[in-house]
Design brief:
It contains 14 helices and four strands. With 319 residues, it is mainly alpha-helical. Helix 8 runs parallel beside helix 11 and helix 9 runs parallel beside helix 13.
């Protein structure tokens, strides 16, 4: 089995490596088991599809598998992780023709499928993080399983804990510090477009700030309460992880113009806030990404058509 090398994808894997190590330290060695079965499933699924339809296999599958594994809760049953990854590779990527032709991000497609199909194991139980030395390196999984979901639900989590990652959550989405450092690395290596990241952050923080300072209340498990502060919302859940590693996928983003990248990123940030605040889905990132993925090709076409018409009009005017 020959796999096409992609330097940009390797840069993303290098950036994800610290998050993988942190996942072991914070939650235990079970992360390696989840990562192993997810990678094996991704390779097998893509290989079988590529062999049958004479498509090519690329290193991007390892990025999709790693991102998917990091987005999962520590208590996820292994069989659900396998089902999700197989669905993401087959229906989120290969049915469209393989790498470079897929509309949706395979990792987020996989997560959306199991999030909808297996809501209870995806959201009902999370584990408290290990602390001190050697942390999770000395255990399989923290035995302190709690019913509270993520910091999106537990508002009393301090900003410093959110920033460093000492709070409950999915394997690789708790440490804002490591996510930002890894994200800056892939921007530096040009594996991610900084315009999409910045516009995502601006759109998210702008709307979250408007809601917070306007005193908007939302319905939570504890009743009606004020929306989270901009920084708490930014460091909670998977938004930062998605802004750097998911929404910047060069294929599913599909924007060939800078204007398209600004609009695409801002739309993702705004949709995340709206879905988080006013829907029954606590974590709005998954559906926000799928929505902007869906309209990315149309956005690119509309912008290019508008520019072509403007250019033709200018040429006609000069004639």
């Amino acid at each position: 089995m020959k796999i096409q090398k992609q330097q940009a994808m390797r840069s993303v894997l290098y950036a994800l490596a610290p998050l993988c190590l942190a996942a072991i330290y914070l939650f235990g060695w079970r992360f390696i088991a989840v990562l192993a079965v997810v990678v094996a499933t991704a390779v097998t699924s893509e290989y079988l599809m590529a062999k049958k339809y004479k498509m090519r296999i690329t290193e991007s599958l390892f990025v999709s598998a790693t991102i998917f594994a990091l987005s999962l809760p520590p208590t996820i049953p292994l069989w659900i992780a396998i089902v999700g990854m197989a669905f993401g590779i087959v229906f989120g990527k290969m049915v469209f023709g393989g790498f470079g032709k897929n509309i949706f991000n395979p990792a987020i497609t996989a997560r959306a499928f199991i999030y909808i199909s297996f809501g209870v194991p995806m959201t009902s139980k999370f584990v408290a993080n290990h602390a001190g030395f050697p942390g999770g390196f000395a255990s399989w999984l923290s035995v302190d399983v709690i019913s509270a979901a993520t910091p999106l639900v537990a508002r009393d989590t301090g900003l410093l804990n959110l920033f460093l990652g000492f709070n409950g959550g999915s394997f690789g989405e708790t440490s804002a510090l490591l996510i930002i450092l890894g994200g800056l690395y892939i921007i530096y290596k040009k594996s991610a477009n900084w315009k999409i990241v910045v516009s995502s952050l601006v759109g998210f923080l702008a709307l979250q700030s408007i809601l917070f300072f306007s005193g908007v209340q939302v319905v939570t498990e504890r009743g009606a309460e004020l929306v989270a502060s901009p920084l708490t919302a930014l460091f909670s859940g998977s938004f930062l992880f998605a802004a750097f590693f998911m929404i910047t996928d060069p294929v599913s983003a599909g924007q060939s113009t800078n204007l398209g990248r600004w609009i695409y990123g801002a739309a993702f940030g705004i949709l995340t806030v709206l879905i988080r605040s006013f829907s029954t889905w606590i974590e709005g990132v998954t559906f926000a990404i799928l929505l902007v993925n869906m309209f990315a090709p149309l956005l690119d076409i509309l912008i290019k058509d508008a520019r072509a018409k403007k250019k033709a009009k200018q040429v006609g005017g000069k004639a």
